[in-house]
TrEMBL record:
Protein name according to UniProt: Adenosylhomocysteinase
CDD domains cross-referenced by the UniProt entry: SAHH
Binding residues for NAD(+): 154-156, 188, 217-224, 240, 275, 296-298, 343, 350
Enzyme type, top EC level: hydrolase
Gene Ontology biological process terms in this record: L-homocysteine biosynthetic process; one-carbon metabolic process; S-adenosylmethionine cycle
Cofactor mode of binding and number, as noted: Binds 1 NAD(+) per subunit.
Cofactor(s) demanded: NAD(+)
UniProt gene name: ahcY
Membrane-traversing stretches: none
Main location per the UniProt record: cytoplasm
Family membership noted in the UniProt record: Belongs to the adenosylhomocysteinase family.
Keyword Hydrolase found: yes
E.C. designation(s): 3.13.2.1
Domain of life assignment: Bacteria
């Protein structure tokens, strides 16, 4: 493979800055480093091709290099048109990885890149949000047969895989990385909690303390975002459609109300539902002048951007990643990063120490599917608990934290129904 002639990136002269970014995150990903060392010895992916669709930034680039160190020929594309970092993409090409990704590309080119990544005829895939799986099970089933299986990164992707499985149409074993404890407990909660404010604060350069933040959806991501909003000094309102999650938000100390009420109070809105139209025209109609709208859930459909445009009389970009929409009554509403994932489009995504665990799970999950695909068959499977626990153990070791062990008496006590 000739990565340079076969890739499609913005500008190869950006590579030095990309290498620096990758080197920085590598220093903060001890669990993945440990897996890389084993992969270098054992070469679990020798002779195999791996296609990856993930947010193409430095941590993802390092995962791609770890898979390559395991013997694979790696091809990568981005999982969002605004999250690709062109310098990182160029650095990967220099490292011998085929890359089809550019920052801020049109939807057609974005999709063409996904298809090119699959046309390399991979044996294994790493997907984010079911982007590649949708193409494979829709318009390009011809590319399916040689694929052993893969791993899926996020909540929404797993919902889609399970829908395919339920209809009896899923053709591949896919590991649900998001459902591993060491993924959603840390990545969705602490990762999203921190990186959402990284993105919002970089984009706006405005204060959060004293403002009202409306968190839409109190799942794993919503809990993290609400927690960090409170820590920054905001008054936090949560909206939900699930009664249990709503009670949880209430007990955690947040105000809970329907969106039509919350819409009147919010200075910042952050959607993290994985659903569509959770903020729409009736909500825009009652928002305060200057309200800031952002999304950190899957896809740019959580805030109904089409209805926002229809309700406005004019719009313009007022700052990088901020679009101002002027409403008919003169109020101004501000949309961050086109309603796409604000933490990745306006920030650098989750912290390296968090993606360390997520991507360690991706690496060992992919290895597991590669070795066992014939016995697994087409289905959505969990990361085996031993691998999940191993990632936690490696993380504790890297942090220098020790924990207790059960004594024999304690084991017997916990196993018994008599005592
Ligand atoms: N930005 C990131 O880096 C990042 C990280 C992880 C996950 N995600 C994405 O974020 C989304 C949420 O992930 P999660 O793990 O928190 O999922 P989750 O299922 O734990 O939580 C989603 C919550 O949204 C609620 N909800 C659904 N429709 C709603 C509505 N109309 N109004 C209010 N609440 C509603 C659900 O009841 C649920 O509690 C997914 O699309 C996921 O793929 C993004
Ligand atoms: N294609 C979708 C992707 C949703 S991504 C959500 C996933 O991004 C992942 N993520 C968050 N930060 C980073 C990062 O910095 N690098 C790579 N992936 C990240 C995170 O694990 C989460 O499950 C879209 O554009 O809307």
């Amino acid at each position: 493979m000739n990565a340079l002639s076969e890739s499609n990136v913005k500008d190869m002269s950006l590579a030095p800055s990309g290498h620096l970014k990758i080197d920085w995150v590598k220093e903060h990903m001890p669990v993945l480093n440990r897996i890389r060392e084993r992969f270098e010895q054992e070469k679990p992916f020798a002779g195999l091709k791996v296609s990856i669709c993930l947010h193409l930034e430095a941590k993802t680039a390092y995962l791609a290099k770890v898979i390559q160190a395991g013997g694979a020929e790696v091809t990568i594309t981005g999982s969002n048109p605004l999250s690709t970092q062109d310098d990182v993409a160029a650095a990967l090409v220099e490292d011998g990885i085929r890359v089809f990704a550019k920052y801020q590309i049109a939807p057609d080119e974005y999709k063409a890149n996904l298809i090119k990544t699959l046309e390399t005829r991979p044996d294994l895939i790493i997907d984010d949000g079911g982007e590649m799986v949708t193409i494979l099970h829709g318009e390009r089933p011809d590319l399916l047969p040689q694929i052993r299986g893969g791993a899926e990164e996020t909540t929404t992707g797993i919902i889609r895989l399970k829908a395919l499985e339920k209809e009896g149409k899923l053709q591949l074993p896919m590991v649900a990385v998001n459902d591993a404890f060491c993924k959603h407990l840390f990545d969705n909660r602490y990762g999203t909690g921190q990186s959402v404010f990284d993105g919002i604060n970089r984009a706006t350069n405005l204060v959060v303390a004293g403002k009202t933040v409306v968190v839409v959806g109190y799942g794993w991501c919503g809990k993290g975002v609400a927690m960090r909003a409170k820590g920054l000094g905001a008054k936090v309102i949560v909206t939900e459609i699930d009664a249990i999650k709503a009670v949880e938000a209430h007990m955690d100390g947040f105000e809970v109300m329907p969106m039509i009420e919350a819409a009147k109070h919010g200075d910042y809105f952050i959607t993290v539902t994985g659903n569509r139209d959770v903020i729409r025209k009736e909500h825009f109609a009652v928002m305060k002048d200057g309200a800031i709208l952002s999304n950190a859930g899957h896809f740019n459909v959580e805030v109904n951007v089409v209805e926002l445009a229809e309700a406005s009389t004019s719009r313009r970009v007022v700052r990088k990643d901020i679009e101002e929409y002027v409403m008919a009554d003169g109020r101004k509403l501000y949309l961050l990063a086109e309603g796409r994932l604000v933490n990745l489009a306006a920030g650098d995504g989750h912290p390296a120490e968090i993606m360390d665990m997520t991507f360690a799970l991706q690496a060992v999950g992919l290895e597991y599917v590669s070795k066992n695909y014939q016995n697994i068959g087409p289905k959505v499977l969990n990361v085996p608990y031993e691998l999940d626990e191993m990632v936690a153990r490696y993380k504790l070791e890297a942090l220098g934290i020790q924990i207790d062990k059960l004594t024999e008496e304690q084991k017997a006590y916990l196993d018994s129904w008599v005592e």
